[in-house]
Design a protein that fits this description.
Length: about 120
C-alpha cells in the first residue's frame, strides 16, 4: 500500500497490510477452541483414563460415553481426523485429551493400546 503525501511517498509496514492476509488483522484472534468437555476432574496424579478412539473421523471431538455405547463405564470416546499410521492418531488423541483436561500433553503417558482402538493413558505430574 502506497499513498502520496505531497512529494513524499508513504509506505505502510507489511504488518499493517491487511489486504494481503486478513488473518493478520489485530481484531482477528486465534480460532476458538471447539467445545471440549471439562475433564479437569481426571487430572489426579496416577489416574488411569480409558479411551475409545475413532481415527480418520470427519472431525475431532471428545465425547463422554455412557456404559451403553462402549460397553464399559467411564470410557471416553475420542474421534480424531488423523490416520492410524506411525502413531499419528495416538498423538492426536493424547493432545485432545490433554487439552480437555487442561494439562500439557507430556503429562499423559500411554500405558496400553499403542495399536488398539482402546487405549489407557496415565496422568503423571
Amino acid at each position: 500500500m502506497r499513498c502520496e503525501a505531497g512529494n513524499i511517498p508513504v509506505v505502510a509496514p507489511k504488518s499493517m497490510d491487511f489486504a494481503r492476509n486478513p488473518r493478520d488483522h489485530p481484531a482477528m484472534g486465534k480460532p476458538k477452541q471447539k467445545d471440549l468437555p471439562d475433564l479437569s476432574h481426571l487430572a489426579i496424579a496416577g489416574a488411569e483414563i480409558a479411551v475409545r478412539v475413532t481415527p480418520k473421523a470427519s472431525r475431532n471431538a471428545v465425547i463422554r460415553a455412557g456404559a451403553e455405547s462402549c460397553g464399559q463405564a467411564g470410557v471416553l470416546k475420542i474421534t480424531v481426523t488423523a490416520a492410524p499410521e506411525n502413531g499419528k492418531a495416538t498423538a492426536a488423541v493424547q493432545l485432545r485429551l490433554a487439552r480437555a483436561m487442561g494439562i500439557a500433553p507430556s503429562q499423559l503417558t500411554l500405558l496400553r493400546g499403542a495399536t488398539s482402538r482402546e487405549k489407557v493413558f496415565a496422568y503423571r505430574r
